[in-house]
Design brief:
Two copies of one chain form a homodimer. Chain A has helices at 5-19, 27-34, 38-50, 66-88, 98-104, 110-119, 166-174, 209-212, and strands at residues 54-56, 62-64, 145-146, 155-161, 182-188, 195-199, 205-207, 215-219. The first copy, chain A, is of the alpha+beta class. Among the domains of chain A are: 5-64, Arc Repressor Mutant, subunit A; 145-219, Ferrous iron transport protein A (FeoA) (SH3 type barrels), CATH 2.30.30.90. In chain A, helix 1 packs across helix 2 (27-34) and helix 1 (5-19) crosses helix 4. The radius of gyration of chain A is 19 Å and the shape is globular. In chain A, 29% of the residues are buried. Chain A binds a DNA duplex (30 and 30 nucleotides) through residues 4, 6, 26-28, 36-44, 47, 58-59. Chains A, B: Homodimer.
DNA sequence: ATAAATTTTTAGCCTCGACTAAAAAATATT
DNA sequence: AATATTTTTTAGTCGAGGCTAAAAATTTAT
């Protein structure tokens, strides 16, 4: 079944919201990200449910079905591959590409996206560090990710460090950062790329980009 | 003023039709190329006229205004640059790219299209030999074009040959092809790329691709 | 446990861009 | 010149995807 531009956007946004929680996604949350009103979202969710792409019960929120997730992943794949293209080949900065990729992600051509993937040398992540699903819709296992590449509000666990100099490890200790610590990036400050991180659900503390890029973490 | 997907398509198609005639473009001609019905075209022409992009009087056909032509040229520029990209960088064949370019031509980003132009080394023509407007919307003067690169139903004049071997010129003479002859390609046969050409308004004759690609012509 | 506040849904309406059927204008034919 | 044919426009309708205002359900607070 063909998917419209609008449908693809809804599925993508529900997917994104599902990444950071196991709960059902609320109508309002979707409305905020789609830049529409709750009433419009309700309409669309009913339509998506009819097509079998989401499970939706009134007042109960929404979740993607397996089929819906497949479509969402293909949109996400296209979005992220185009972002790599824009940065690596077109020379855009990482902060300029989102809006353009929002348009390019709806171009319909399996052949094109697979050729693009090859042209870009099958990248595993986009310029923001988000993983790119392969053509089967499978997200690559990113065993280790740098804390500096993590998005806001993603749960993760500290798995190691990329530098083991004494002063660096002393700093980590002082910040209460130890192996196995549960981390969540609450805020990324564009000015100096410093991050505000909650450690084991505590109040967030500031960590410089220099430190963050030497911390290895595992998602989830 | 922002242009919708549909509006851009109409302007582009009116532009294409205007290329091969000086007369006003008929509602039916537009309907055929947009794959819509005449009634729908009438509606849209009224809207385009209101926005100042076409001159339109009921029953009199339509022409682009200067502003309308500017928009059309920017869509054509995008379409043709993306076609070059698809063939040169993505490895598509010249006959596979039209549908994908029909989608890509509506991506809205001046910055992207100019970077793409640069990435492709400022090509003058697309893979089908059509000229690519520059960023000011000016079509390059293609002083000489190969007959083999010409589209169907474009008037042109024989301006020279790319090969001057005796047997080649003898063949041209036999076909009544001489300098200054008025030519129009009536049909391109995909099988062997041979062309059926009307010479000085005569009944069309068949010319092989091998011959056509050695004939230099001037448009118009 | 009730009342208050918030979230979600319903109902009705709007614009865009298409459609069909019928009317009107333009063009072609005798 | 009158009639037949073709082209174009008008009138009315439809679906997609939005909106607002009001109603209903859920959640939070007292």
């Amino acid at each position: 079944m063909a998917t419209s531009f609008a449908e693809e956007n809804y599925l993508k946004i529900i997917y994104r919201l599902s990444e950071s929680t196991l709960e059902d996604i609320s109508t309002n949350a979707v409305a905020e990200l789609t830049q529409t009103k709750a009433a419009s979202v309700t309409d669309m969710l009913r339509k998506l449910a009819e097509k079998g792409w989401v499970n939706y019960q009134k007042y109960q929120g929404v979740r993607l079905t397996e089929e819906g997730e497949k479509i969402a992943l293909s949109v996400v794949r296209k979005h992220r591959l185009w972002e790599v293209f824009l940065v690596e080949k077109m020379g855009f900065n990482w902060d300029e590409v989102h809006e353009i990729a929002e348009q390019l992600e709806h171009i319909e051509s399996e052949a094109l996206i697979n050729k693009l993937d090859e042209f870009l040398d099958f990248p595993k992540t986009d310029p923001h560090g988000d993983p790119i699903p392969n053509k089967e819709g499978i997200l690559p296992e990113l065993s280790y990710v740098l804390l500096s590449d993590l998005k806001e509000n993603k749960a993760c666990v500290l798995m190691g460090v990329a530098k083991d100099s004494a002063i660096f490890l002393q700093l980590l200790t002082r910040l209460n950062l130890s192996l196995g610590a549960k981390l969540m990036v609450k805020e990324i400050n564009p000015f100096d790329r410093s991050v505000s991180v909650s450690i084991n659900d505590s109040e967030p503390v500031f960590i410089s980009h220099e430190v963050a890029k030497n911390i290895l973490i595992k998602l989830g």
